[in-house]
């Protein structure tokens, strides 16, 4: 990458700014298009017009929409995402607290899936059109086809209720008892790992099949190198680059779409916070959740792009 890396990093960071601005604008506009008055939801149907007006003024909902957006954007640039309309809590600390639960599940699940998928895809490509290849592809397709909530319910039923190996409902923060916290995260982590195992295995296999057809692999075999050395030294490094890209996309998608699984396992994560805030018309929390998720997604993809030259020497940051 050489001396061009700082310039490349600067350009990539610069491009994230308009992306986050457009996301914040779309989120703000879409939230204002959602029917329903959050003040009415808080005060109830018996609220008087004077009470509604006071609450609108308290949260700035009586101001013009462009002014509301500019005020929110200015506070956001200072690290202030506002306060929840329903609970009064500061949004940013609330997001960071809930994000810890989601991040642990997603990171561990994707790591487990990658550790299993890459060797499985490599072996399947090496034994292409064999019984092993058919079994790996069939298993990957099976896991890829299962809805995450359905698999989660099955694990809850058999592992949690029938076998009683892990608790079924509830959650304990890591700060109180990390062992109990891990026990509540085992099933959702396994669920996500199995779901993502399918797509990562198929990607790893497709990349390895393509690399195995290249001339330098044939040359390495002609030199008398063992199949093990050919696979580990020549095929794996070059086939892993596309899989690494897919891992980054999976991470970003899971962090933004884990709401269903957190609802199934009753976990207080970022996804469930977003769902609850949408039903409550809690504008600051919804906006904060969506913007935070978008920022994490952009950051994950930035890290993936910056690491790409490490896995594929043919790619530079120039």
Automatic annotation (TrEMBL):
Pfam families: BPD_transp_1, BPD_transp_1_N
Membrane-protein topology: Multi-pass membrane protein
PROSITE patterns reported for this sequence: ABC_TM1
Keywords: Cell membrane, Membrane, Transmembrane, Transmembrane helix, Transport
Localization annotation: Cell membrane
Transmembrane regions: 12-34, 101-124, 136-161, 181-200, 239-265, 285-311
InterPro entries named in the record: BPD_transp_1_N (IPR045621), MetI-like (IPR000515), MetI-like_sf (IPR035906)
Domain (ABC transmembrane type-1) ranges: 99-308
Family according to the record: Belongs to the binding-protein-dependent transport system permease family.
Protein name listed in UniProt: ABC transporter permease
Source organism (scientific name): Acidovorax bellezanensis
Phylogenetic lineage: Bacteria, Pseudomonadati, Pseudomonadota, Betaproteobacteria, Burkholderiales
